[in-house]
Specification:
alpha/beta; 10 helices; 6 strands; 219 residues; Rossmann fold; single chain; Arc Repressor Mutant, subunit A
């Protein structure tokens, strides 16, 4: 089984160095790159196509986006784990609503906590640091429940996700979608994961039905 490939973005700090050491020593996880510059990190993410990008928001003020939403939006083609947020409660909620799948505080957590978050996100599921406040966890659980099948969650797909959706409804395979959009199949899969979450579905057929129901694509 191929390892989960991780790209990290953020200044060289002790917490990010520690996180890198934990992940590098973990079976089934490979740190494929580090970048201290935001623009360079975006370029490397596009070239390397990692499974997960980890961004240190606290220690990337000079090189990163101003908000977690901007960060997640810029990395829409991959799974995103954010590390630390200055305004944790609202920032975490905003990040997950924007499409982030993981959050780490790096405050007194164990190596096992880190690995659990990464492996859960790699499987396409949301994962939070277990040491978050009860209030944040409660709000995140309500968010997760609202993502169930049906009209409860009406998150809007991005422009590129809409492109994927149109091709999906047209009956194209992942390979055909990748060719049409000039991206890799892994990128297409990442877009599909994001679409399933936003549409509140679990399969291609459900995604097609829900997209047509919402008027997001024409049959």
């Amino acid at each position: 089984m191929a390892p989960t490939r991780i790209l990290m973005i953020g200044r060289k700090t002790m917490c990010l160095e520690g996180l890198s050491a934990i992940l590098s020593a973990s079976p089934g996880i490979e740190v494929i790159g580090r970048s201290t510059d935001w623009k360079d990190g975006l370029a490397r993410a596009a070239t390397l196509e990692p499974d997960i990008v980890i961004v240190d928001m606290v220690h990337c003020e000079e090189c990163g986006p101003a908000t977690p939403v901007a960060c997640v939006s810029a990395l829409e083609s991959t799974k995103v784990i954010l590390v630390g947020l200055p305004d944790a409660d609202s920032g975490i909620i905003d990040a997950f609503e924007a499409g982030a799948l993981g959050y780490l505080t790096l405050s007194g957590q164990s190596a096992e906590d880190v690995r659990r978050v990464v492996t859960t996100v790699a499987a396409g599921e949301a994962a939070l640091d277990p040491k978050l406040s009860a209030g944040v966890l409660s709000r995140m659980r309500r968010l997760a429940r609202s993502a169930g099948p049906g009209p409860a969650r009406e998150a809007t797909p991005t422009e590129r996700e809409n492109d994927v959706l149109e091709l999906l409804v047209a009956g194209r395979s992942n390979r055909e979608i990748a060719h049409a959009l000039n991206v890799s199949e892994s990128t297409v899969k990442n877009h599909l994961h994001a679409l399933y979450a936003k549409l509140g579905v679990e399969s291609r057929s459900q995604a097609i039905s829900e997209a047509i129901r919402r008027g997001l694509a024409t049959p």
